[in-house]
Design brief:
Elements: H1 5-41, H2 46-63, H3 68-85
Helix pairs in contact: 1-2, 1-3, 2-3
Length: 86
């Protein structure tokens, strides 16, 4: 571990940020998987799940967890599949 006080703090802060980003990325993957199953199986509330997934993708892109182009690509793909399914 580092000897300088500011370097020690950087280690702690970066560890905390890494854990937070990992948790948010995992939650995003879960929402996307639920959306995928809703789109393939159909049923009610498909539009709401797609809207929620788009919202979470926007939030992740705003926080820098995923790239903004990846978020746009995923959202476009989900909206396209929603349109063809509905």
């Amino acid at each position: 571990m580092a000897n300088i006080k500011s370097a020690k703090k950087r280690v702690l802060v970066s560890r905390a940020k890494t854990e937070r980003n990992k948790a948010q990325k995992t939650a995003l993957k879960t929402v996307l998987k639920k959306t995928e199953t809703a789109l393939t199986q159909g049923g009610e509330n498909v539009k709401e799940t797609v809207d929620l997934a788009c919202k979470r993708m926007d939030q992740a892109a705003a926080k820098g967890i995923v790239h903004k182009n990846k978020a746009a690509r995923k959202k476009s793909s989900l909206q396209r599949r929603l349109g063809s399914a509905g």
